[in-house]
Amino acid sequence: MTYTHPIYTPESVAAQRRLPELGDNRVRFAGAYHGWGFHEDGCAFGLRAAEAFGAGWTSP
Length: 60
What we know:
It is built from 2 helices and no strands. By secondary structure, it is mainly α. It has one domain.
């Protein structure tokens, strides 16, 4: 497989704001592509997806 970094345009950034509309009470989407493509973006959006199902982040 060949992987490439997402290409960010004004249109793609505007479309990112609509990604939460795709989820429901059974399916949520998460990934670095929800932000600027960094690992931290993937983590943050994974946490948001988990929170939508009632899970959360707890410190040990």
